Amino acid sequence: MIIRPHLHWFRMLLAWRGSVLPQLLPRLALIFCISIVALAAHDHLLPISLNLNTTAPFSLIGIALAVFLGFRNNASYDRWWEARKLWGQLLNESRSLTRQVFTLPSRPLPKEDLEAFLAALCALPHALRHQLRKSDPHDDLAARLPAPLFERVIASRYKPATLLLYLGEWVQHQAQAGAIEPMAVLALDRNLNGLSDVIGGCERIVSTPLPFAYSVMIHRTVYFFCASLPFGLVDSIGVFTPVFAVFVAYTFMAHEAIASQLEEPFGTDDNDLALNTMSTMIEDALRDLHGKPARTLSSRQAEDYLFD
Hints:
Blueprint: H1 9-14, H2 21-45, H3 56-103, H4 111-133, H5 138-142, H6 147-154, H7 159-176, H8 182-207, H9 212-237, H10 241-263, H11 275-289, H12 299-307
Helix pairs in contact: 2-9, 2-10, 3-4, 3-8, 3-9, 3-10, 3-11, 4-7, 4-11, 6-7, 7-8, 9-10
């Protein structure tokens, strides 16, 4: 995902990265070529009318198509926004757990115990990000976890859940040692359950795409409409047919492309969630509560996290 300040209205017109226009250019070029063919056929090649000169059928189809695209975009945006709320909940639950392990114990905990808890909690967003993107978490986890825990987590299939299990075991160990009272254990367990809800919610979004039949129906209708539109416009607007056909095609195709990106919010497209940035922000927030500085990134890593 691209993270940038709000652009001036004129610069917004010229924005390239983050728009879907680059991936649409070949398709728009095809519509332009079809428009040229329709214009040439109308003026020179076909003496027989195709009976597509009236725009009424295209108006009706366009309205229906706009309604279907609206539903598709709403469904995709709902998935994107739910994913963003889940990662916001991940930050809130992590902050609450960090605060509780510093304030709820009946006696001061050993520094190494606090460090171990914080390391596992800081690694959890990175492990979840890699699981959702099906990428290799080795380097990120190795840099944050002690060796025994790293070996345990890297050998597991569901690494965020394994880290969550370790956090639960940590609470159990402190309770058995008498450092955390039963009521404090319940409070900690409530936030651990919240982290489990976040992991499960993200896994649900990843494993349940929008119905394929619904997507392919809209896809076919969009391209049939855009390919046949020049033949319906050529008689009324003549040489301007390529301009208006390409503009209308851009509107419909862009809506479909945006919905396709938002449907999978954990990917690496320009409009997907900035999971790199959010993972680092959650870790830095927890380190700040512990009085530690933010992690230092190389210039290349900083660029990757800025543009995700």
